Amino acid sequence: MRALAVEMPQKKSQIPKEVQYSSSNYKIYRYEDVSSTNKVAKQLARRNDGDKVVILAETQTKGKGRLGRRWFSPKGGLWLSIILRPEIRVKEALRLTFIAALAVVETVKTMYGLKTEIKWPNDVLINGKKLCGILTEASVEHGIVKFVVIGLGINVNIGLELFPKQLKSTVTSIKHEVGSEVKRAALLTNLLQNFEQNYTLLQQGKWTVLLKEWKSFATFLGKQVQVTNPDEIIIGKAWEVDTDGALVIKRDDGVLKKIISGDVTLRQLP
Ligand code: BTN
Question: For the whole model, what pTM was predicted?
Fold first, then answer.
C-alpha cells in the first residue's frame, strides 16, 4: 500500500456550499454526505489556490483507504481532508502524514487521557486496535508538489457493533474506549490546533524533532514484523524509520531493507 499517492487531474464536480471557521484559522467546508472527502478536497484544490482548507463530512459513501480499500464511514466519525500547499519536495510529502498522526495522538491523549500507539506508516491504534487511518495524496506537476490532501478518518462516536463483521475485531472508537459519546466539534478544533503547531514546526525545519516525537509512539520499532506490499513480503525486525519516513527492516540474514509502502503486522514469536 502506498502511503502517498500521486493523483492525476480529473473532471470537475460540485463545489462545497457550507462554510464555517474554526479557531485554528482553517477554513472548513462541511457536508452531510460525500463520496470521499479526499475526492472533494482534490476537486476543490484544482479549482482554486486555497490553502489550509478542510473538507468535513458526516458520512462518506466511498471513503477511501490505502491500497484501494474502502473506509467504513458511518455517522459519528470524524471524516476530514486537509488541503495544504507546502513548499516541499515530493519525497517530503510523507512527512505530512507523520505530523497528522502525531496530532491525532496528542489530541486523543490530552482530551480523553487515551494512550495510543502509531503503526507505520500512519495508523493510530489503541491496544492494537485501529482508531484512525490517514491517506495522504499529493498532486505533482513537473516534479513540483502543487498541493497535498491529508485525509483523516477517526472512529469517534461509533459503537463497535456497527462495524462490518470482518473489521469488528481489529478496530476501536473513542466512544468505546471512553465509555460514552464525546463532542466532535471540540475534538476537531483541538486536532487542527495540534496539527497547525506541528505544521509550523515542520515549516521551521524541525522535522528531526517531530520525527523523534513520532517515534516515541511507534511501539512496533524493535519488534519482529511482517511487511506486506503488492510486490513482496518482508520478515524481520522493525529496525528504524529513517529521515524520509521509510521503514527499515533488518532481515534474519542481517540485510537491511528500506520500505516505502506496505502493511505492517506484528509477528508472534513461538
Ligand atoms: C487507511 O486505509 O488507513 C486510510 C484511511 C483514510 C480514511 C479517511 S476518511 C477521510 C478521508 N476521505 C477518504 O476517502 N479517506 C480519508
Answer: 0.91
Check pocket membership of 71 for ligand 1, CB cut-off 6 A. yes
Cβ of 134 closer than 6 Å to ligand 1, yes or no, is: yes
Query: 42's torsion region: left (phi>0), alpha (psi -120 to 50) or beta?
Result: alpha
Q: Which residues contact 163 (CB under 8 A, 6 or more apart)?
A: 72, 171
How many structural domains comprise the chain?
2
Query: Do 233 and 147 belong to one domain?
Result: no
Q: How far is the CA of 133 from the centre of ligand 1 (A)?
A: 6
Determine the distance separating the centroid of ligand 1 and the alpha carbon of 97, expressed in angstroms.
12
The pLDDT tens digits for 44-97 are 999 988 999 999 999 999 999 998 899 999 999 999 999 999 999 998 999 999
Q: Is the CB of 81 under 6 A from ligand 1?
A: yes
Q: Which residues contact 195 (CB under 8 A, 6 or more apart)?
A: 24, 82, 99, 100, 103
CATH of the domain at 236: 2.30.30.100
Same domain, 142 and 252: no
Write the pLDDT tens digit of every residue in 216-247. Answer: 999 999 999 999 988 889 999 999 999 989 99
CATH number, position 27: 3.30.930.10
Same domain flag for 205 and 242 = no
